[in-house]
Structure formats: structure tokens, C-alpha cells
Amino acid sequence: MSYRLATIPGDGIGPEVTREAMKCLDVALGRVGLKVDRHEYGLGKDHYLRTGEPISEGILEELRGFDAIFLGAVGHPDVKPGILEKGLLLRLRFEFDQYINLRPVKLYPGVATPLRDKRPEDIDFVVVRENTECLYTGVGGILKQGAPDEVAQQTAIYTRKGTERCVRWAFELARSRPEKRLALVDKANVLTYGHGLWRRVFEEVGQEYPDVARDAYYVDACCMLMVEAPEKLDTVVTCNMFGDIITDLGASVQGGIGIAASGNINPEGVSMFEPVHGSAPPFAGKNVVNPLAAILAGAMMARYMGSADESPAEALGREKAAKLIETAVESVLGAGRIPDLSVHSGLGTDQIGDMIAEAITEASA
Ligand code: NAD
Ligand code: IPM
Ligand code: MN
Question: Which helix (H) or strand (E) holds 151?
Fold first, then answer.
């Protein structure tokens, strides 16, 4: 069968990395007898400047009909910060209730981490970031703007439903991993109301998962742990704001933002996959950025995208395709063929995409 995929290449380096991700996805799906029908949406800076809106109700409605969405990156210096980020990216996450933001932190063999003495077996955890609440809801406002007694308020929202569904999904994920260990990362010593709720929900839901070991870390201490002892982490669950921050740190410890992938998942609806990085405008069109983050987001998409009319064999095929991509990335990196994940690798974005596509073709299925 063929899955229906919407792509939003977006701004800056978005189109370049999306192209390589789709190249690898097509090869991997082809190897297991699956394919995607793609429809590209030209959203982003140009669309906004032309139409005055980041996305129309009509397009939002259309997107509901897809099995998944792939997004390159949005944001551009020609547009005031926040308009595209909130109006397009966050709008999609909220509109489709993609309440899980899954961000693996994995040091692949052959990749240099800034952490001295840490090896691939030490850095291999996943962050489950709540993706619809916290400081991101846009609740707040400004009073007396510009006046000396100006007041700005930005309110964090946590609901029992929103917290519980995220925590439960994280427990399920932790249970599926060999270590069976879930850490809650919060600031419950200060955010006694909001993160007090997180702690209570974590303990309550945890009773249903006696086979999963529970840890809890304050977010400041977690940052230290991520640098000094990342081997203590396996599955991490955290709120939206802290998840945003610690996953950039995570990207850094796994060798750079050029390899950090992200999935905005609605387990019951339409999910959206993207690299963690943004549109990096200074590098747009230069063929120097690393497409591995987008390629690995494509693998995550193969694993998690849903379709009501697929067979169990097709679902297994998707998982196989995801593994083919991940194994290809591992073998190319392990062979030392991409010495540097930054813009200074000396390799073209397309060359790296070709290397991975070739490794997928050559791998034994
Ligand atoms: P950025 O992630 O775009 O770039 C920061 C730096 O990271 C770059 O200068 C570059 O050195 C490096 N980098 C990024 N992608 C890379 C890649 N694929 N390979 C190698 N190196 C890479 O962050 P920024 O400069 O803070 O933001 C630029 C724009 O992107 C802003 O408008 C911001 O709001 C937006 N943004 C969008 C998303 C998204 O669409 N998901 C995420 C973050 C930022
Ligand atoms: C990310 C980005 C977004 C976020 C921005 C661009 C809205 O930083 O995907 O991590 O804060 O979630
Ligand atoms: Mn971020």
C-alpha cells in the first residue's frame, strides 16, 4: 500500500534536509515493498509574506487527511520572531494534539562527543517531552506596554489529562526498552503546584508499571547528569519547556544538532516529524548542513506514522524500514565516513544523503 504523506520543507535549510530525508525514506520503504504518496505544502516565510497568514484553515483541514506530516524547519530573519514558529509549527503541534515530543539522544559509533571518556554505550536515552501544555499554550498577556510599570504575564498550564497521557506513554516506552527505567525531570521544589501535579501523576501511574524503575531529578541537576553521567538515563519524561531546553543539550552530547531527530506524536491521530534544529538561515542553499537529523526523523516517521487501513504485515514493514535507515546511519558513521556532524564536515548535504541511501540499498533486509 501507499501511505499519504504531507511535506512542509519550510525555510532556510529545511528544503535541503527534507530532500535527503525523503530520498532515504523512499529507498527504505521500497526495500520492504511499501511507498509514500507525497504532497508538498509551500508553507513558511514566502507563503506568509504573500498571504499574511502562516497557514490557512483550509490547509489545516487538508492536513487532517494525511497519515503523517514531515516538516523541514521554519523561521526566517525577514519575519518577526514567533510569527512562523508559533503560527505554523506550534499551531500544527496543538491543532493535531501531538502531545508527545519524542527526542532520542544517542551517540552513534564514530561520532565525537564533547564529553571526554563517554562512549556510545554511555549515551543512549530518549526524552519524552510533553508537547501541548506548560509555558507553550500562549496564555498570558501584556498590560501597559512600554510604560515603566508594564506588566508581562506568561502562564504555565498543566492539566491532569495532559500530564497523565504523556506520563503513561513514557512508562509504556520505558517498559519496551531493555533498561526499563523512567526518570521524571521537573522543578517540583519550586513549581510546587504545576510540577507537584506531575509528581503525583508520576507516582500514581507508576503503580501500574511495577516492572519500570522510577527516578526523579530536578531539571538543574539533570543538566549536570546529562554531562557527567548520561549512562544513568534511559527514558526521561518532562514538561514542554524543560524538554525543549534539555534536548538541545542532548543534541550537543550526542555529537551535535546535525543528528538530533524529533517526532511530534499523536498516538491516535496525525503525527509530525522534524529535525530538532531550525532553519539555520546563514547556511541555506549552501549544501553544507548535515541531513542526518532529518533522515533519522524520517526513520521515526516510518516507525510511528499511523494508517487505519494498513495490515499487520505492512505495520511490520514500516518498523523494518525504520531499522534499515537507523542501521545505515550507524554503519556509515561507524566506518568514520562522516568525521564531523557540523557544517564543517567537508561533505555536501546531498553527498551524506547519498551515502545513507546507498547503505540502505546494500544492507541485508
Ligand atoms: P538553528 O538550529 O536553525 O541553527 C543554530 C546553529 O546550529 C546553526 O547556525 C548551525 O551552526 C547549527 N545547525 C543547525 N542545523 C544544522 C544541521 N542540519 N547540520 C549542521 N549544523 C546545523 O537555530 P537558530 O539559529 O536559533 O534558529 C534559526 C531559525 O529557526 C529561527 O527562526 C528559529 O526560531 C527557528 N527554529 C525552528 C525550529 C523548527 O522549525 N523546528 C527549531 C528551532 C529553531
Ligand atoms: C524546537 C523549537 C521550537 C520549540 C520553537 C521553534 C517553537 O525550539 O522544536 O525545539 O520551542 O519547541
Ligand atoms: Mn528547541
Answer: strand 151-154
Amino acid at 48: Y
Grid cell locating 8: 512542509
Q: Domains in the chain, please, with CATH?
A: 1-106+258-365 (3.40.718.10), 113-254 (3.40.718.10)
In the chain, alpha helices (H):
14-31, 45-51, 57-63, 83-84, 91-95, 160-176, 194-206, 219-228, 240-253, 292-304, 312-334, 349-362
Which of 136, 158, 217, 304 is labelled catalytic? 136
Query: How do strand 140-143 and strand 181-186 relate by DSSP bridges?
Result: unpaired
**What average pLDDT values come out for the chain (365 residues) when binned by 10 residues?**
94 98 98 96 97 97 97 97 96 98 97 96 98 96 98 98 98 98 98 98 98 98 98 98 98 97 97 97 98 98 89 94 98 94 96 98 83
Residue with the smallest CA separation from ligand 2 atom 12 is 244
Cell numbers of 273, please? 516529524
Q: Select from 88, 90, 103, 262 the residue to mutate for testing ligand 2; criterion: most ligand atoms less than 8 Å from CB.
A: 90
The residue whose CA is least distant from atom 4 of ligand 2 is 244
Cα gap 212→170, rounded to integer Å? 11
End-to-end CA distance of the chain: 19
According to DSSP, residue 209 is labeled: -
> Of 186, 187, 217, 320, which one is the catalytic site residue?
187
CA distance 154 to 136: 9
Residue 245 gets which letter from DSSP?
A: H
Q: Is 246 in the pocket of ligand 2 (CB under 6 A)?
A: no
Active site residue 340: no
Rounded to whole angstroms, the Cα distance separating 289 from 278 reads 11
Nearest to 197 by CA among 182, 184, 208: 184
Task: List beta partners, residue 152.
Answer: 142
Backbone angles phi, psi at 155, to 5 degrees: -100, 135
Measured distance CA(133)–CA(135) in Å, rounded: 7
Strand, helix or coil at 114?
Answer: coil
